[in-house]
Fold these 2 entries.
Entry 1:
Amino acid sequence: MARRLADLVTEFGGVLRGDGSTPIAGIATLNQAGGAELSFLANTHYHRYLKHTRAAAVLLREQDAAECPVTAWVVQDPYAVFARVAQCLYPAAPFTAGIHPRAVVEPGASIDATAYVGANCYLGSEVNIGPGVYIGPGCTLSGRITVARDSRLAASVTLVGTVQVGARCLIHPGCVFGADGFGFAPDHGEWLKIPQIGAVIIGNDVEVGANTTIDRGALEDTVIHDGVKLDNQIQIGHNVQIGAHTAIAACTAVAGSTRIGARCAIGGCVGIVGHLEISDDVQITGMSMVTHSIRHPGVYSSGIPVEENAKWKRNAARYRQLDDLADRVRRLETAGTDKLHNK
Amino acid sequence: MARRLADLVTEFGGVLRGDGSTPIAGIATLNQAGGAELSFLANTHYHRYLKHTRAAAVLLREQDAAECPVTAWVVQDPYAVFARVAQCLYPAAPFTAGIHPRAVVEPGASIDATAYVGANCYLGSEVNIGPGVYIGPGCTLSGRITVARDSRLAASVTLVGTVQVGARCLIHPGCVFGADGFGFAPDHGEWLKIPQIGAVIIGNDVEVGANTTIDRGALEDTVIHDGVKLDNQIQIGHNVQIGAHTAIAACTAVAGSTRIGARCAIGGCVGIVGHLEISDDVQITGMSMVTHSIRHPGVYSSGIPVEENAKWKRNAARYRQLDDLADRVRRLETAGTDKLHNK
Amino acid sequence: MARRLADLVTEFGGVLRGDGSTPIAGIATLNQAGGAELSFLANTHYHRYLKHTRAAAVLLREQDAAECPVTAWVVQDPYAVFARVAQCLYPAAPFTAGIHPRAVVEPGASIDATAYVGANCYLGSEVNIGPGVYIGPGCTLSGRITVARDSRLAASVTLVGTVQVGARCLIHPGCVFGADGFGFAPDHGEWLKIPQIGAVIIGNDVEVGANTTIDRGALEDTVIHDGVKLDNQIQIGHNVQIGAHTAIAACTAVAGSTRIGARCAIGGCVGIVGHLEISDDVQITGMSMVTHSIRHPGVYSSGIPVEENAKWKRNAARYRQLDDLADRVRRLETAGTDKLHNK
């Protein structure tokens, strides 16, 4: 559904330099946009593509406007405005309310008349589905499950145990929420299972990527606060709490009972051990190993980047002698000092 | 179902200091327990919560009993006794045997009359389900699959190829057992698939967390021995063997043909390369990189914890010059020795 | 279905030393083979098993033939020939074309008459299934999905959004292709979703392991070229491109917009950050951290192998002082030079 460019500018703000009557039907990169497509320039890395763009218009900052060969839409934050325009041009697919005849809904389940439940879904007797909710095909909700207003489970999502999903959430395929946490007591060389009886509580406006797992709490609950964004294949252990508007990239694992603050940005493949406290506004770069609490906002990192294999072998061998190397440096320093004292 | 405290003490052992007539209906943390709830103190980290607890009773060690403001249940290992009491108070949900009318069971499948098969399950013609087994909704068992007595597949579990699951196992949603291992022969810049014809053999009393994958063997079998506990999102490659009562935390990957001994404890996000031998009673801390066999019991580690980004950058840059730094220290030492010899 | 050994040699090449009339009914390791089983010796690690093998025949190189106690099949590349023979002896299970009565196929879906669709599958109205395709039980295809000739979705595969799967692909259970990439614009401490409108394009002869996720592109497409082999639990971010015949081992994550060349071999648990370029013919060893582009073929590594915990603690502590240690070495060197100059 195309929109007049001038109307979009009126709706989302900024200043137009060029023809506002242009229809905007879609979005694309500077490099690939053409016809009725809007593009944007937010990252200087892509500046080189600006002068050759064939976009209908480009969202950009004042300092880039002079070089724009097509209609320029000047805003302070092109990426955020681009996001809003894109949401407007590409709304979530509409659906017709109802229960697919090939869904299985047990007696006792409560499903709002404005919700949709897809084929091959299973909704157990203690499931409660709110208004405007979309449950895509192949989802299994077995346990005490609540999904609030306007949330979407894309497809093949599994919710078990006790799970509350807030409003306007988007849960991607393969997610498993509410499975037992990993709790065992050692007992003479074997393991005794600790029953996991807590819930998973997901706030509003949370998005969770494909194949991510969030375990139910052991005794208390696992809590994901409003606006959290989790990427694919993330593991959230039992009793973890994640503060509002924190974003975590793919394949990161958070072990049990750790509390992460609000507005954190955590990279991919990070490992965070259990029972830690990470304060608000902490950034952690990808592949970091977090073994102690982080009590102050800031950027934190660990890990050693790749190098040529032969050099890696030498450095890794030296690393294993690092304690010895430090001792040798100390002896050299002492020897120098002794010499000084012996003068 | 509430139990009299004195009856629990009789059943599970230990000494009671206080009122044995108290009913115990549930379990909770020291911090949150109240009413008819039992709590426990096993980790000194939580000792500070003891004096304010409002639990009906607390499982603890002799040395903590004096400070307990409520009824004390004194045992040698509070965590293990807590596990047993919790299992008693929170037994696995009972089920009524039978096959859900919306399950698909192919002719030839054998399902014990005391087993349950949930909605939207698929059981192929070579599936064999033992007595007391629970197959939750949305499970797919396609191939030569055996599930032995009293095991539970929570929901959305996929077993393919040739898979044997032992007795009293608990398999969480999203697990995939029996998919092909990653076996290819290089051939002029392309890859030739090696057919994977081995099985997955899972012992008794094994628990496997959500979205964990265990590949079938290439020629021989992949074997998970009795009492092994695997957390979420673990990857077990083809032909791996894991010894009895070994526990592995989330997101760890074990590459093909590696053999891990009995009673090992392996942290999360560990990577173990293929064709290694890890002996019995080995502990490996989280995020470790295991590239060689470990032949002696003990605790093993690698990885560098997170630090402030600016410091990380400096240290990581130095790391890449480590071999050079070691050479420079050697030259300094030689210079010192030469000076000595020249005296 | 047993084959005469001599016939296999005629079909796959090489020289026979021994009885060609032996029937070959299966394959096995040197250690376990017996009766009518063919084995192979490709890795010197297993040479010790050769002299005791009871295989019907062994595929091996000329230099190993003299020590073979049974019929020797001499070839230049035993592993590649073994792969071909194994494929011949263990072909993919045949199936009868048709749609299982318990599959759900929406009006509008196009399914070739020679394809198979299993029980509990869901195929939406824009799904297009080519000739000879096998869609195993429990698969969900919801969106604009094309699966080309002779591909197999083993079971429980979820394809959403816009996904094209090429010919002769093999996709293992739990895979999710086409979920939204992780794209958000920061906006006053919250996150604005960037609609993800690109596709996932998978070439021909691609194999993808269990629970691997491949996200749809943001604006452009995510592209996996012909002959790529991906192991289990791999994460491929939006807009990633992977060149032909590249193989990636389990649990590796490739962040958004990175381009990996052709014929690369990437180990398990590797993390590759976004917006990088990895050239053709690059090898990266397991658990490496790739934070910069790699522009030349070669072998690249990072990561520090496991050591005894006590030693690890000392070395890790020294690592955190590495920048300081390097400064101290510099001062020692300067002191030495000063002494020299002061002579």
Entry 2:
Amino acid sequence: MKIAVLGTGMVGDVIATKLLSLGHSVMMGSRTNNNEKAAAWVAKSGAGAAQGTFADAAQFASIVFNCTKGLNTLDALTLAGAENLKGKILIDISNPLDFSKGMPPVLSIVNDNSLGEEIQKLFPDTKVVKTLNTLNCQLMVNPLLVNGGDHNIFISGNSAEAKAEVVTLLTSFAWKKENILDLGDITTARGTEQLLPLWVRLYGAYGSPMFQFKIVK
Amino acid sequence: MKIAVLGTGMVGDVIATKLLSLGHSVMMGSRTNNNEKAAAWVAKSGAGAAQGTFADAAQFASIVFNCTKGLNTLDALTLAGAENLKGKILIDISNPLDFSKGMPPVLSIVNDNSLGEEIQKLFPDTKVVKTLNTLNCQLMVNPLLVNGGDHNIFISGNSAEAKAEVVTLLTSFAWKKENILDLGDITTARGTEQLLPLWVRLYGAYGSPMFQFKIVK
């Protein structure tokens, strides 16, 4: 599959590298062509790896991962272009974390709104699926690293069909289907984005991001 | 121990009844003396159970549970009186849930503040400990009802000594010490109060409140 990874930070690198290892063609997108980190990723990754602008990557792909920082996401996706995102699945794994007032961060969109919803409003012809935004990026692509893979992620989106496709992709990352909890439409992203304030404090308490949430009944 | 339970709703009833069963003297406090629900609780509970105003209950007790609705909490505690709460541990299990705009609720205090902090600011001479605010009240007093008791609650507060006392009380509810995660000072209540937006959506997805969060590593 042709997949775009928007964002050249650690999350983008980890996701893009995982997708490549699974045999996908991956274009890493950034604000400018030949971004230093994107070029370095292509150089280390070899066949199947490419880079370009956000627009190049969105146009290239049938599925787009948003791995930009939450505060930059709406700008980045605007640069990617509504036409290039039209009809496609956008997997949003970002969080609207604002570090400008110090640690721990606050959320720039919160409570009666979410970044997931803002993206969906801005790109009504794109199928936004929010997932993977509640855990460390190493665990996103390798859930087996904690508790034998037995823990949960959440999925939010208006299109059941798009969510099903994303679940299939996630199972290729070794996520068990039953551990991916469908919360409902994109407004349920409010729930998962607001998990971050607890996540950062647990990170503080443990001194490590290698933990996960498991829902027990 | 003499314990006040402020609030006559389901949460107050469950907590007060559990405390009574453990041999404590419990006074249920409400806005008015002889509140119908408080009187009914005393009538069904017998020896050790009493009721009165918020102020009566706070004055009577050495430990105070806040089980009022989050939107009413600051008013209720003001009625309880700073003098009556002075030097005491206040266990805050409320959440600032605002149902006025429909379901699911939003938070009336959120992001860079929390109800726990607001209480601590308003009563600087009281040791506010936030805990038990992330699960159904039946599970608060009987953690064994799900997953053999193996799941987590959180605790936030500025006084390590007060938190240790609360942990001891919680272990009498059958909580294992290692399952009570100390997040730090009262500002960490932001993390647990903002877990509620996910909690309500999981409740919606499962159709039952009998689930819990477990942190796995």
